[in-house]
Amino acid sequence: IVVTGSDDHLWKMWALPDGNIIMTGEGHTDWLSGCCFHPSGTQLVTSSGDTTVQIWDFSKRRCILTLEGHARTVWDCSWHSCGDFVASASMDNTSKIRDVNSERCRYTMCGHKDSVNSIEFLPFSNTVLTSSADKTLSLWDAR
């Protein structure tokens, strides 16, 4: 299985190797920039040019949560290995850690001088890695 996101505002889940579409997600109002499977494989998080991050539940076949708060395009998103936190990286020069259970932003990480283009939790850790158009990488303690 592979998931793709595109300029048509949709994400699609494909079966491999036959290439059949298993599921499609419609809800963003601009192009999709990133997606990441929940550690359990039951959900997907997506990021978009519409400044939002959305969480999709495969069993419900719909978006179950839209996270707002970035001022510009969200370039990337990632799940923490515990499955309770989502990280996002934005063109607004910030990244955010959100608690999906409380639906709240736990941290907004400021420090990059240009767009934050990617974000990833280090496996089984509270450390977050970001990369930026300011030509730097940053490690953040998300505790």
Structure, explained:
The protein is an all-beta fold. It has no helices and 14 strands. The chain has strands spanning 2-5, 10-14, 21-26, 32-37, 43-48, 53-57, 62-67, 74-79, 85-90, 94-99, 104-110, 116-121, 127-132, 137-141. It has a 4-stranded antiparallel β-sheet with strand order 4-5-6-7, with no helix packed on it. It has a 4-stranded antiparallel β-sheet with strand order 8-9-10-11, with no helix packed on it. A hairpin with a 5-residue loop joins strand 12 (116-121) and strand 13 (127-132). The protein starts with a strand and ends with a strand. The mean pLDDT is 96.
Rounded to the nearest angstrom, the distance between the terminal CA atoms is 33 Å
- The low-pLDDT segments are none
Instruction: State the major sheet.
Output: 4 strands, antiparallel
Biggest sheet strand order reads 4-5-6-7
Number of strands: 14
Determine Rg (CA atoms, Å).
14 Å
Multimerization status: single chain
Helix/strand-derived class?
Answer: mainly beta
Query: What portion of residues belong to β-strands?
Result: over 45%
Helix content class: under 10%
The topology string of helices and strands comes to EEEEEEEEEEEEEE
Please tell me what the overall shape is: globular
Number of helical regions: 0
